[in-house]
Write a structure and sequence with these properties.
The complex is a heterodimer of chains A (406) and B (404).
Chain A lengths: L10 E4 L5 H11 L3 E6 L24 H7 L3 E4 L5 H12 L3 E4 L5 H5 L3 H7 L4 E4 L16 H4 L24 H23 L3 E5 L1 H6 L3 H10 L18 E5 L6 E5 L3 H10 L14 H6 L1 H12 L4 H10 L3 E4 L3 H6 L1 H5 L3 E5 L5 E5 L4 E2 L16 H8 L4 H9 L5
Parallel strand pairs in A: 1-2, 1-4, 2-3, 4-5, 5-6
Antiparallel strand pairs in A: 7-8, 8-9, 10-11
Helix pairs in contact in A: 1-7
Chain B lengths: L9 E5 L4 H11 L3 E6 L24 H7 L3 E4 L5 H12 L3 E4 L3 H6 L4 H7 L4 E6 L14 H7 L2 H5 L14 H19 L1 H4 L3 E6 H21 L16 E6 L2 E6 L3 H10 L14 H6 L1 H12 L4 H10 L5 E2 L3 H6 L1 H5 L3 E6 L3 E6 L3 E2 L18 H8 L4 H9 L4
Parallel strand pairs in B: 1-2, 1-4, 2-3, 4-5, 5-6
Antiparallel strand pairs in B: 7-8, 8-9, 10-11
Helix pairs in contact in B: 1-8, 6-10, 8-10
The chains are: A alpha/beta (406), B alpha/beta (404).
Chain lengths: 406, 404
């Protein structure tokens, strides 16, 4: 392994909060950038308050969710309501390549940290803003969390059981998606800077980024004027049957099975021991199986119900059928596949306890991702303010005392 | 006009379905030259998926293919033949990035594993996006979006009703997620080649990316520490309330009020009903514990109002509730019109069709207007002739042999 990472030498001031912004910082951090989340004890980020806490001790530096979501970010603490804190933030930005934030438009300006101000101290700055609905347009001021954001994209309208109401995806799928894809935006803007010397203010609308996922459904609307309804686990474009999850032995155990062509169907038939029902006219052709997918799924569910999910997945795979267990949270930690890939790792937090976080969620042959534990509030204050910005010890102590650095 | 952000990057895509094609579309959207390699005859499987205008199948008129492959050039090549693989290697010798989503064992069998590609071009960044990844026991498994999504824990933990089957999103969520992940890590590896010392293999498992950053994020540490885990509830978030989708007079709304000011705003919008004045409800966690009491009372109110009205009044009061929009309502919203999100594309077989603008705006280097997805083999001439310098006779022979 070569020691250097792709983004080594890139410094990021991350004003991002809650989940999407910090995951952006994490992604850049894993890739080698030096990332400082700018936060404050004066208004503790909601994500730091989420239980459970390390060894059960409720403390904003011990939220286990928080550490996993923010790992890779460093942290400096500044109470941006105070003018001297804003001055320090500007000094930090002057030494950064990238500023990232996911507030409602106007909040950074209210802090005195709008793009026009920041570019004065750092002319080639890449400022990356990822509000809900972008920096312009009639919905620019809307407030959402990742949960309600997806309501505006169309995506939530067709998630649910067939003939049923929309069912919410819990816990905001869009947040980490936007944090990761946002990294692509930062990198594209950095390439432009490196080639031209020009910075810019990237306008990343989380709504528009998530809407990319409805592309296939959107094309049906564009071509045929249709909007989809909840479709269960069926193939979004009706290009596979069976296509669903089916019950297995045990409590809340399921197997996913997707059959996309005739060879796979024949494999499934072999795995089932060639039962009589598959020869019925309703199931003998692909079109028939699609038309009668409800009945097909019932037949299949009756067969799967007695099997262990993993055993069944192996059996179907050996016949060339795409099948896999539906995993619960415990499976993720204990499953041999995720163990073999080192998906989850135990780290020692700077405050002295061990915790399990996800590691490099992409495997790269050319470098080891820089995975660090989630930051304690202000853990990098001394380095950033004293060494990077050159604040003398006496002033530093005063700033801490006056809760400017806080 | 400044050049687009990724202009000058050369990308070859050997992709089918959603993951590798969408990843390559992201590169293409911001100016990279992307050449998509498809098998002769049928092409990418999405050509058969549709949707098609008036539901009439035609491999040149598939909406999904069009959406995922805008701004690319397209060539046909049978990489199952030795001659085809030799041509692919010649393309890769001059490329910066290779994006693929084939079965890992198939790539090895073809002699197209990473070691073989690096031997041809040590600076090549190879982005492989597969359901399960290049290593680990399930890397030998066949899988589609459905299998990857359900292997990630996302459905069991977060999506569906208790006791009912866990649910996928209804789109190709795992593949899109893997595509975005591969784009970011792949571009970083590409821009960092000098620092890292050349190209490398970027191995994305769609299941692992979601299992880590979405599901693992909020669940694994808790399970590792306390030995207990949770499963799907059918509501958006149990920790607080309201945080779920509720029916309203004309559809559904995302009712969300977590922080104190948000809850206060919602209570005002509802006209300060007595039930909501209970002091302990000011605590977000207490509301979560009393969700069974709160939701029916709140639903009685939402059912008397329309979704847009609820969204507007809640937003004005500082409460982050939204309307659950249908695809039509989302696309037709004036906000997206004003931002130019829905693009018109002239396509040789579809005529005037629509697509979405790229996911984010780079005002300092806006991309050129969109070009339509390629017809099957549309750019064989320019790519094989001009790029590889193959003669007309050579091309004719390869066409004859079914390689192109």
């Amino acid at each position: 392994m070569v020691a250097s990472r792709p983004l080594e030498g890139i410094r990021v001031a991350n004003f991002g909060w809650v989940w999407a912004g910090p995951v952006l910082g994490q992604t850049l951090g894993f890739l080698g950038a030096e990332v400082y989340k700018v936060e404050s004890r004066a208004r503790i980020d909601m994500l730091r308050t989420l239980p459970p806490f390390a060894r059960g001790e409720r403390d904003p530096d011990r939220s286990l969710s928080n550490h996993a979501c923010w790992a890779g970010n460093g942290s400096v603490s500044l109470d941006l309501k105070k003018p001297e804190a804003v001055e320090l933030a500007l000094e930090l930005v002057a030494r950064c390549d990238v500023v990232a934030e996911n507030f409602v438009p106007g909040v950074m300006e209210a802090f005195g940290l709008g793009y026009d101000t920041l570019r004065e101290v750092k002319p080639d700055l890449v400022m990356f803003s990822m509000p809900t609905a972008g920096l312009t347009g009639p919905l620019r001021d809307i407030r959402t969390y990742g949960l309600s954001l997806t309501g505006t994209t169309g995506l939530d309208s067709f998630l649910g059981y067939v003939d049923g109401p929309p069912i919410p995806m819990e816990q905001a799928f869009s947040d980490p998606f936007n944090g990761i894809l946002g990294g692509f935006g930062v990198l594209a803007a950095l390439r432009h800077r490196d080639r031209t010397g020009q910075g810019q203010h990237v306008d990343y609308s989380q709504q528009e980024a998530v809407m990319q996922l409805i592309g296939p459904a959107f094309m049906d609307y564009a071509m045929n004027g249709r909007s989809p309804a909840p479709m269960g686990n069926r193939h979004p474009l009706s290009a596979a049957a069976p296509h669903g999850v089916f019950p297995c032995a045990g409590d809340d155990r399921w197997v996913s099975i997707a059959v996309c062509d005739e060879a796979e169907w024949q494999g499934l038939v072999r795995a089932m021991g060639d039962p009589d029902w598959v020869r019925g006219p309703e199931f003998s052709s692909f079109d028939g199986r699609l038309r009668n997918i409800g009945a097909l799924h019932e037949q299949l569910a009756a067969w799967t119900a007695g099997f262990d999910d993993r055993v069944l997945a192996e059996r179907l795979q050996s016949e060339g059928v795409a099948a896999a267990p539906v995993m619960n949270v415990a499976d993720l930690l204990e499953d041999p596949h995720y163990r073999a890939r080192g998906t989850f790792i135990e780290v020692r937090h700077p405050l002295g306890f061990d915790e399990t976080i996800y590691g490099a969620y992409v495997k790269t042959s050319g470098f080891d991702a820089a995975v660090r534990p989630g930051p304690a509030i202000g853990q990098d204050n001394e380095y950033v303010f004293k060494e990077l910005l050159g604040v003398p010890e006496t002033r530093y102590r005063r700033l801490v005392e006056e809760k400017v650095i806080y | 006009m400044p050049e687009a952000a990724l202009e000058g990057l050369s990308v070859v895509e050997l992709g089918e379905s959603v993951s590798a094609p969408y990843c390559a579309r992201l590169f293409a959207d911001y100016g990279a030259d992307v050449v998509k390699v498809e098998p002769p005859g049928q092409g990418d499987v999405t050509r058969s998926w549709g949707p098609f205008p008036d539901d009439v199948p035609d491999p040149e008129r598939s909406g999904t293919y069009q959406f995922l492959n805008t701004n690319k050039r397209g060539v046909t090549l049978d990489v199952a033949t030795a001659a085809g693989r030799e041509i692919l290697l010649r393309l890769l010798a001059g490329a910066d990035v290779f994006i693929e989503n084939r079965f890992p064992a198939q790539m090895r069998a073809w002699g197209l594993d990473y070691a073989a590609l690096a031997a041809v071009n040590p600076d090549l960044v190879v982005v492989s996006i597969t359901p399960f990844g290049q290593t680990g026991p399930y890397s030998a498994w066949k899988g589609y979006d459905l299998n990857a999504f359900h292997l990630s824990g996302a459905s069991h933990r977060y999506c569906g009703l208790p006791g009912q089957p866990p649910l996928e999103h209804g789109t190709f969520s795992a593949e899109f997620y893997g595509a975005a992940t591969g784009a970011t890590w792949g571009l970083a590896a590409t821009l960092g080649r000098e620092r890292v010392g050349g190209g490398q293999h970027v191995d994305v498992s769609c299941a692992e990316a979601i299992a880590s950053t979405f599901v693992g994020a909020h669940n694994i540490a808790a399970y590792a520490q306390d030995g207990v885990f949770e499963t799907r509830t059918g509501v958006g978030m149990r920790l607080s309330a309201p945080a779920t989708i509720l029916p309203c007079r004309d559809g559904h709304v995302w009712m969300l009020a977590i922080e104190p000011g948000q809850w206060k705003g919602l209570v005002e919008v509802m006209g300060n009903p007595e039930w909501a004045q209970v002091e302990m409800f000011e605590d977000m966690f207490v509301r979560g514990e009393n969700a069974d009491i709160i939701y029916p009372l709140l639903e009685a109110w939402t059912l008397q109002h329309d979704k847009q009205e609820i969204m507007e009044r809640c937003q004005a009061a500082g409460c982050p509730a939204t309307a659950v929009t249908t695809v039509a309502e989302a696309v037709e919203h004036p906000h997206l019109r004003e931002r130019g999100y829905v693009l018109e594309v002239e396509h040789p077989a579809l005529g005037r069709t629509l697509s979405f603008a790229p996911p984010f705006k780079l005002p300092g280097c806006p991309p050129p207007p969109p070009s339509p997805a390629p017809l099957l083999g549309e750019h064989n001439g320019p790519v094989y002739g001009e790029w590889l310098g193959m003669t007309e006779a050579e091309l004719a022979r390869l066409r004859e042999a079914g390689v192109l």
